[in-house]
From TrEMBL, chain A:
It comes from Cryobacterium cryoconiti. This is PadR family transcriptional regulator. Residues 24-87 form the Transcription regulator PadR N-terminal domain. Gene3D superfamilies: Winged helix-like DNA-binding domain superfamily/Winged helix DNA-binding domain (1.10.10.10). InterPro entries: Metal_resp_DNA-bind_regulator, Tscrpt_reg_PadR_N, WH-like_DNA-bd_sf, WH_DNA-bd_sf. It comes from the Bacteria. Coiled coil: none annotated. The lineage of its organism: Bacteria, Bacillati, Actinomycetota, Actinomycetes, Micrococcales.
Automatic annotation (TrEMBL), chain B:
Keywords: Membrane, Transmembrane, Transmembrane helix. Coiled coil: none annotated. It comes from Cryobacterium cryoconiti. This is Uncharacterized protein. The chain crosses the membrane at residues 90-109, 121-143, 172-188, 225-246, 253-279, 299-318. InterPro entries: Perm_prefix_1 (IPR047928).
Length: 113, 330
């Protein structure tokens, strides 16, 4: 119990930034706020609504997402879609993530050998 | 019809957002909240509980609004904190002292009552500290919100210089030379006199000594005890300088001795000054006693001299403590 309390800040630190990457990937197909929150949870990303919604607007402002209001359904929703710049950013971040995974693996291998 | 909790929550959030973003955030947020509540209703929750749970999870609307608008939730953030703190420390060491000393001298010259002087000094000191703190901080709060650049970049040149411990050979020689000069001046003034007085103009064709008479600056009635005491103080100062050199640094004991010497020195000078015993009456007559010198001048000069003596002694005492602290740190 004690451990998990102490580790929480470190885990948060490590996870910071992964939500952006996950959103850019998931929004290759247009999605809206609450639906994206559920998708993230399903893929194992624990995001809070109050950080995700402002984050989407920020990414849109930076040009990595585009948005469009869909008023066809009973409830009007704002749909986001990853832009071309967003796709390039997602590629770069994914490559970096893979490199980090390899680096971490080399650390743990080095210890067991 | 009364507003629902959701309406009130959304209004509280968009209230502080920029005008052009308000409608958009309002529509998006209400859709998201409605989606969330609906999902909970499908799980079998009661509408009222579901709404409360969703809004509670979203948290303080002001925090949410700050997140939407990218507003800082701190007065002064890490980007400006050190610049702010360094500047404030610098201003706090300069401004209050300068203000207090200036006002003190003005009050003494105006011969204000002592109680009034103390009150004025206190309010000036507190006022300066508060004003410097407030206005400096206000400027940095504005900087934090406008994102302006302070132009401060750290480079290697900003590293603190290795500080003098005041225990080197140069320090010893300087101290002893100065003390020797002071002792010599005391004796010279006693036996010959510092001020040369010419009776009827100076003829540049003749030597200065033959047409002038020398006049001591200090009151000769003080001898032997007062100047003798001064010579003893000078001897103590010299012994202290040698001890500091021998011990390769200042100690707390040295700093105490130095403080006591400074206090004794300034007390003696102030006492003699206030009781009008310090200067040779002849010399005072000759300089300030002339008809065209207003009587106020003597008093003002005495105040400035007294302030100077106290200032130098105070700095001397503080300097000893600073050096002893540095020596301990070494």
């Amino acid at each position: 119990m004690k451990d998990s309390d102490d580790f929480d800040p470190q885990l948060l630190e490590l996870r910071r930034g992964t939500i952006v990457l996950a959103c850019l990937h998931l929004l290759r197909h247009a999605g809206y706020g609450y639906g994206l929150l559920e998708d993230l949870a399903r893929h194992g990303f624990a995001a809070d609504a109050n950080t995700l919604y402002p984050l989407l607007r920020r990414l849109e402002k930076q040009g990595y997402l585009t948005s469009e209001w869909n008023t066809e359904e009973s409830r009007p929703r704002k749909f986001y879609l990853t832009s071309a710049a967003g796709l390039r950013l997602a590629d770069t971040l994914t490559t970096e993530w893979a490199a980090l995974t390899e680096a971490i693996a080399s650390l743990t291998h080095g210890r067991t050998e | 019809m009364t507003a629902t909790l959701t309406d009130r929550y959304i209004s509280a959030t968009v209230r502080t957002l920029p005008q052009d973003a308000q409608a958009d955030v309002r529509a998006e947020l209400s859709a998201a909240i409605a989606d969330d509540i609906e999902a909970r209703l499908e799980q079998g929750e009661v509408r009222q509980d579901a709404e409360r749970a969703v809004l509670t999870a979203l948290g303080d609307p002001d925090v949410l609004a700050a997140s939407y608008a990218d507003r800082p939730l701190q007065l002064i953030g890490p980007r400006y904190y050190l610049t702010w703190w360094r500047l404030l420390k610098l201003l706090w060491t300069i401004a209050p002292v300068t203000a207090v000393v200036g006002v003190l001298i003005a009050q003494l010259i105006a011969d204000a009552p002592i109680a009034e002087t103390i009150g004025v000094l206190l309010s000036v000191a507190i006022g300066t500290i508060v004003h410097v703190g407030f206005w400096t901080t206000l400027v940095f709060i504005i900087l934090e919100r406008t994102g302006a650049d302070t132009g401060e970049r750290w480079t290697l040149d900003a590293l603190p210089e290795p500080q003098e411990t005041g225990a080197g050979r140069g320090d010893l020689i300087a101290s002893l030379a100065f003390l020797g000069l002071a002792a010599g001046a005391l004796l010279w003034d006693r036996s010959i006199g510092f001020v040369l007085v010419a009776e009827n103009g100076v003829d540049i064709g003749v030597g200065l000594g033959s047409q002038t008479t020398a006049m001591p600056v200090l009151n000769s009635e003080l001898w032997p005890w007062w100047p003798g005491g001064m010579l003893i103080l000078i001897a103590f100062e010299a012994a202290l300088a040698i001890a500091v050199y021998a011990r390769h640094g200042w100690t707390t004991g040295f700093a105490w001795l130095n403080t006591v010497l400074a206090v004794v020195f300034s007390t003696v000078i102030l006492y003699l000054l206030i009781t009008s015993q310090l200067f040779n009456p002849e010399f005072v007559d000759y300089t300030l006693g002339r008809g065209n010198v207003p009587p106020e001048v003597g008093r003002i000069l005495a105040i400035l001299l007294g302030a100077g003596v106290v200032g130098v002694s105070l700095w001397n005492a503080i300097d000893g403590w600073l050096k002893s602290r540095r020596s301990v740190a070494h």
